[in-house]
Specification:
The chain has 178 residues and is α+β, with helices and mostly antiparallel strands. Helix content is 29%, strand content 33%. It is elongated, with a radius of gyration of 17 Å.
């Protein structure tokens, strides 16, 4: 069984740019941070290589995270885990945030998708995973526990905006050719 490795995110400015709410796919009802990004000067092979390098540098072991790695179709799928902290009163509560990341590349463009997001409290004896749709969507926040759910949403947005910024930076890199 493949191991999932942690990626610890160092806190930084929240929402410097990027998503400001949890985007919900109208077809699936799932949260899906997704975008098609043009990189006209890069071909599929270069983009694929950049995506593989991003996985390797972002996660402790890209080989353990990657569930699908298909160079010919230009598709990478990984299962990620990030530890987040939720401020509660005078303490911070650690939570595990699981997710799937999909990167698809074609000549001159790529698409990323961060979806299937769940939260798991390490202190929870059942280790039950709660779908993010039940916690951080605008609808879920309006339905109850507003302050707590807002904290989860803000932390998730901070983390995914950091992932996306690092991915975009890695993907527009041209081969050094030394």
């Amino acid at each position: 069984m493949k191991k999932i490795f942690l990626l610890l995110i160092i806190p930084s400015g929240i929402f410097a740019q990027g998503f400001t709410s949890a985007p919900v796919d109208t077809t699936t009802g799932k949260i899906n941070f997704t975008e098609v990004v043009k990189e006209d000067s890069l071909n599929q092979e270069q983009l694929y290589s950049n995506a593989k390098e991003w996985f390797a540098k972002t996660f402790n072991s890209a080989n353990d995270v990657l569930q699908m790695d298909d160079k010919s179709s230009g598709k990478l799928i990984g299962k990620g885990l990030s530890m987040i902290t939720i401020p509660m009163g005078i303490t911070n509560v650690p939570e595990k945030m699981w997710f799937t990341v999909i990167i698809e590349v074609k000549n001159g463009r790529y698409r990323y998708s961060f979806t299937d997001i769940t939260f798991e409290s390490p202190e929870d004896q059942t280790h039950r995973k709660e779908p993010a749709e039940n916690i951080i969507t605008d609808k879920a926040i309006q339905e109850g526990k507003t302050k707590l759910r807002t904290k989860y949403r803000d932390e998730a947005l901070r983390v995914f905006n950091q992932f996306i910024a690092s991915l975009k930076k890695a993907m527009n890199k041209k081969s050094e050719g030394w």
